[in-house]
Amino acid sequence: MTQSRREFIKIGAAGVAVAAAGTGLASNWWGLDPDVVHDPGTDGDKIVPTFCELCFWKCGVLAHVKNGRVTKIQGNPEHPLSNGRLCPRGTGGMGLLYDPDRLKRPLLRRKGKRGEQAFEEVSWEAALDFTAEKLELIRKTHGPEAVALFSHGYGGSFFKTLMAAYGSASIAAPSYAQCRGAREVGFQLTFGSSLGSPENLDLGNSRCITLIGSHLGENMHNTQVQDFAAAIAKGATVIAVDPRFSTAAGKAKYWLPIKPGTDIALLLAWMHVIVNEGLYDREYVDANTTGLAELRAHLEDKTPEWAFTETTIRPEVIVETARVIAGARPASLIHPGRHTSWYGDDTQRSRAVAILNALVGSWGRRGGFFIPASMGAPKIALPAPATKPRPAPDTPKGVSFPFADETLAHGLRDASIPGTAAYDVKGWIVYGTNLIQALPEPAKTIQAIQELELLVAVDVLPAEIVGWADVVLPECTYLERWDDVGVTPWREPFLAVRQPVVAPMHESKPGWWIAKQLATRLGHGDFFPYDDAGKMVEGRLAKAGYDVDAVKAKGLVRGKAVPVTTEDGLALSFATPSKKIEIYSKQMEAAGLAPLPVYTHHEEAGSGRFRLLYGRSPVHTFGRTTNNRFLGEVMKDNEVWLNAKIAKERGLANGQNVVLVNQDGVKSPPARLKATERMRPDCVYVVHGFGHTDPGLKFAKGRGIDDNALMSRSKIDPAMGGTGMNVNFVSVEKA
Question: What's the predicted TM-score (pTM) here?
Answer without folding.
Answer: 0.93
